[in-house]
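My current task is to audit a protein record that another person submitted. Alongside the sequence sits a line of tokens, each denoting a local backbone shape. Please read both lines and tell me whether the tokens look consistent with the sequence. Do not assume that whoever made the record got everything right. Thanks in advance; the entry in question is below.
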Amino acid sequence: MRSHVLSLAILLATTACAGVPGEPLVSTAPSAAMVAPILTSPEAVDTLTHAQPQVARVTHVALDLDLDFDARRVGGTAELTVLAAPGAEEIVLDTNGLEIAQVTDGQGRALSHTVGETAAEGGKGAPLTIRLDGAETLRIAYRAPADASALQWLSPEQTKGGVQPFLFSQGQAILNRSWIPTQDSPGIRQTWEARITAPEPLDVVMSGVRQGEPEDLGNGRRAFTFVMDKPVPPYLIAIAAGDIDFRAIGPRTGVWAEPATLDRAWREVNDTEEMVVAAEELYGEYRWGRYDMIVLPPAFPYGGMENPVMTFLTPTFIAGDRSNNGLVAHELAHSWSGNLVTNAVWGDSWLNEGVTTYFENRIVEAVYGKQRAEQEAALMFANIQETLAEVGEDAPGTALSTDGGYQLGSAIAYDKGAFFLRTVESVVGRERFDAWLRQWFDNHAFQPATSELFLADMMDNLVRGEAEADALMLREWIFEPGLPANVAKPDPAAFAAVDAAVSAYAAEGTIPAGYAQWSSAERQRFLDNIPKQRTAGQLAALNEALGLSGTGNNEELFLWLELALANRYEPAVPQAEEFLAEVGRAKFVRPLFQVLWDQDEWGRPIAQRIYDETRGSYHAVTVSYTHLRAHETDSYL
């Protein structure tokens, strides 16, 4: 495959706007022009969009929207700036369930438009085709549906405070077309701005820089204004609104959260400024101005989402000891890999996630030390091995680049991608590898990329000679399934003591006395590797000795509940029910429902009862993941 940059491109001038909430922000003059190419070779075609960017593409989105918490709907206008090829007669946008009231040009002249049939593929939605008639600006009046898949509306009872409602979005991969009419493809980068009105006393944050104080509209509502002056893929437009407060960490870092969560959240992420410094020392300037975070209610479906200038985080990572802060390092690293240089198509998502996971581990090493980084890398490698053992070394979905499909689990896009870069580093040396990766970010900043482009850049700017190219096995890593023979395996000494404790427990039932002093990675390694078949007595003894059901670390609690439910351990059922009712993170929810479903007549009634009670609290992402295989058919709880 080979990617091509056509002459149809946009010049987008941009600089960072820095500031803290409540301070007026002054836009600075553009310091550089950034080219956002349109990749139109067959290898770079995004099959998950209706857009035809080689004909006409969106370059800027201006939103003016009202949040209606009673109806649970968003509505207003989207004004799109369009760049069209000579002779182009129409533009095609992505929508999913949007109610289009009117489309006009910049002078208010009505434009002919049609909404096509909804695609059979899940989530692709329907094309909105607009006759341009020479228009360079489109104004679309619309309303998003109450069940917009990107948005989750929470009742006050679903929040920590219990008084005010809450809203958050999750756009990746193709969900934002359910609340924004635009070309929803990672290769079609766009600048954007937004004016959002919400009822008092709610605050609104977005993945753009807030401009000054909210405007009091005098009718119990306030208006918030945001700007993202850098071209980003549309899935990175994000919003959250609720009873939230802000606390600064460093000169460019801070955290938002519900008041009842803010103290714990702030303590947990208090080393974020140090992480930003470490990341810059590795791979260059942080180009987005501020790096703020919001810790959302536990219904958020992911661990984190790398929305620019406002990372979204689940509260389930808070453990009180920063042991799960690799999550923060991961989302921060996305500010380079993913947000700065983005996969052009979702079949190359490893370019976002694998590169980021490698970068995350380097930040962890710089901030927390090499031992912790090596232990976390060993956990990643175990994930790869477990996935390959389950699906087979030759399964096509275990290639990094999947020709438009998705990898088989995060162990491929994230962990295999990271170990690819670890392997390259081990062959060429860290100093040379770091210099190459830094120039990759610099030379492709604010642009989409493909696997072929990544490979070509390695061959042109990193590899020295045919012998080294053969040793690196680059094409095998990217385009072939399984794990290449040259993989740089993690240091076996990283978990030597833990693995010995696992063997002792398996052979003699010896419970490790020093478990409480272990790191979280060590405790997770132990729980994930002890024998899976346990009696009720063995489980009770393990829980009593190690305090598993009382841990404040949700990663460890999940492993305990998974083990207990797999062995039909009745005392764990109430805690599992409580956990599934409170937490919406798909990483935890899906496996626990699956393990219950796999227990046939014992577990299926429990799974059905819990899911009937909890489904309404889950984001569409989590609901779509939670399907359980029952014999020859899929049963959707």
Remarks:
- The radius of gyration is 25 Å.
- The first strand starts at residue 10 and ends at 13.
